[in-house]
Amino acid sequence: MDKKYQTFWSFYPYYLTEHSNPICRITHYIGTSLLFVVIALSIYTSNAKLLFLLPLVGYGFAWLGHFVFEKNKPATFQYPLYSLGSDFVMFYHFLTGQVNQKVEDAKKTVTAQS
Asked: Which of 12, 42, 79, 107: disulfide with 50, CB 3.0–4.6 Å?
């Protein structure tokens, strides 16, 4: 099966439209924040075994947001690397107060491409 998105930046607007529900995005932000906490804790305690928690906190919260609130299938199933990168870009846009505008812009972009 050919993938529709061949570049990260062409994929990102689609990714944002798959996160239209603000609560879904919040679950992603929680998971991404916990990733940083786990990494810092692992370094601070010199316990690399804590890194095994990364998929649990990262994907656990994200998938909760998709299945319970957004009611869609996570894009990570088809675009794992683009989705991972997009999660960090979306988190950055959240931290810088840009995410709501980016989501609205993405809706227009993805609709125009359809």
From this structure: 42
